[in-house]
Every structure is written in structure tokens, then in C-alpha cells.
Amino acid sequence: MEENHITDGEETATKYKVTIVGSGNWGSVASKLIASNTLKLNSFHDEVRMWVFEEILPTGDKLTQIINKTNENVKYLHGIKLGKNVVADPDLEHAVKDANMLVFVAPHQFMEGICKRLAGKMKGDVQAISLIKGMEVKTEGPCMISTLISKQLGINCCVLMGANIADGIAQEKFSEATVGYREDREVAQRWVQLFGTPYFHVSAVQDVEGVELCGTLKNVVAIAAGFVDGMEMGNNAKV
Ligand SMILES: NC(=O)c1ccc[n+]([C@@H]2O[C@H](COP(=O)([O-])OP(=O)(O)OC[C@H]3O[C@@H](n4cnc5c(N)ncnc54)[C@H](O)[C@@H]3O)[C@@H](O)[C@H]2O)c1
Questions:
Q1: Short-list 105, 109, 127, 120, CA closest to 152
Q2: pLDDT tens per residue, range 116-147
């Protein structure tokens, strides 16, 4: 039976359970970062659940079974051990039902469908964070992904963004990222603790939209800069 509380003398505090919704390149690296920290930090359950959009590999094996057997996401992050405490779960509703910390990291185009499936299926005290770069553009205007999550699920949603390429962080090359939070600094600090490692430096600022927009628009600028380089138009065109 898993413990839900830690006792420190007279005080009893919640032990947080983390589920990652998404298991591509970045979701797998997030699971590695988080799994290394939940083992070290007493305020988190060791186990990290990761919802995996089930895929059948060319070998005929299910991706979830291979992740749970080899501890590697062989399709999206080959050659990197995620941590023995990462459990791949193909059932979205089952993966989130006991969590009180949800990490959203699926590509943005799947988020509306994911939120529809999750509405009303989570614990009341759940906190979320989005690592997703992108936005929903509708006829009534653009909608940030953290807003979509907050509105559809009725939960608080922070963001974590940075100039982060998943493979480099998987190889433990130094990188940094920022948590954007709305009001609760304590929640932001919990996310900082959960993601931060000596090679992944995380800090927090009270600005969800600012952080999310910088993370999202950085990719647009990077693509444009790549076009300029590819067309050999020179640095003046780039800046
Ligand atoms: N890869 C990076 O270096 C990186 C870094 C920072 C942020 N991000 C952001 O993280 C998010 C995820 O990117 P990624 O690179 O991990 O993606 P990815 O391309 O590596 O993975 C795609 C994922 O989508 C899943 N998928 C496929 N069809 C699906 C469906 N119908 N419903 C739900 N899921 C489905 C796949 O199984 C896979 O897990 C993006 O918003 C991206 O901008 C990525």
C-alpha cells in the first residue's frame, strides 16, 4: 500500500504524485529529470507515471511494454535510461487518476482532445504545468495552451519553457529553463524542485503568458533564422 503522507514530528504533509501526459522526445527527457528527483526528495512519491500514446513497434511489441521492460523509450529517446521508477501507462484516465501534479508535454494539436478526455477525471487538488510550445489559433483569436488546460480542466496551470533541445538535456549537457506561475509561489517552487538538476537549471517568474509566449515564439524566430541561413541571405536579413 502506497503512503500518501509523510510525517515529520507532529506535522503531516502531502506526498505528491506525478504523472506526465505525453512521452515523445521531450516528455521522455522530462520523465528522466523528474524521476531522478522524486527518488531524492521526500515530498514526492518515487513512482512517476507516464501516459504513452500506444504504438506498435516494427518488432510487433507495444511501446509501453518495451519502456517498462527496458526502461527506455526506444522510439523517441533511444539509448537513454529514464529511471526504473518511470511507469509507462497506455490508459490516459488511469494514468492521471491518482496524480496531484500533472505535466503536459504532448504536441499541441492533441491537447484539445486530451483535455476533453480528462475533464472531471482528476483529483480535486491537482496542479498542472505545460511544457508545450505552440498555441491554438481559433476564429475568436489565439489561445495559449496553458489557458486551454486551465479552462477545459478548471485547474491552475504553470508553464516551463527554455531554449531546450531534448537530446542535449538527455545527455546531461547544461541547459536552463523558466517556470512561469500565476499566483502561488509555493507551487512554482515545487515545480522548480521537481525539474531542477545540476545540468538543468530552473528558476521561476510570476508571468505565465510572458514565459509561454517567449518559449513559443522562439521556435518561429529559429525557423526563420534557419531559412535565412539556408538561402544564404546573410546576417543583415536575419536580424
Ligand atoms: N523535442 C524537444 O527538444 C522539445 C523541447 C522543448 C519543448 N518541446 C515541446 O514539447 C512538445 C512535445 O514535443 P516532442 O518533441 O516531445 O514530440 P515528439 O514529436 O517527439 O512526440 C510526439 C508524441 O505524440 C504522440 N502522439 C502521436 N499521435 C498522437 C495522438 N493522436 N494523440 C496523442 N499523442 C499522439 C507520440 O506517441 C509521441 O509521444 C511540443 O510542444 C514541443 O514544442 C520539445
A1: 120
A2: 999 999 988 899 999 999 998 889 999 999 99
In whole angstroms, how large is the CA radius of gyration of the chain?
Answer: 18
Residue 76 in contact with ligand 1 by CB distance below 6 A = yes
Choose the residue to mutate in 20, 25, 52, 63 for probing ligand 1, maximizing ligand atoms within 8 Å of C-beta.
25
* Residue carrying the nine cell digits 488511469: 94
Q: Which atom of ligand 1 is nearest to the CA of 27?
A: 16
Q: What is the DSSP letter of 136?
A: E
- Residue 216 Cα: closest atom of ligand 1: 43
Position in ligand 1 atom list of the atom nearest CA 55: 37
Q: What is the pLDDT of residues 65-119, one digit of tens each?
A: 999 999 999 999 999 999 999 999 999 999 999 999 999 999 999 999 999 999 9
Ligand 1: which residue has its CA nearest to atom 26?
Answer: 53
- Taking the centre of ligand 1 as the mean of its atom positions, its distance from the CA of residue 106, in whole angstroms, is 5
Active site residue 218: yes
Reading phi first (left if > 0) and then psi (alpha if -120 to 50, else beta), residue 123 is in: beta
- The superfamily in CATH containing domain 5-208 is NAD(P)-binding Rossmann-like Domain (3.40.50.720)
CA dihedral for 27, 86, 80, 201, sign (positive or negative): positive
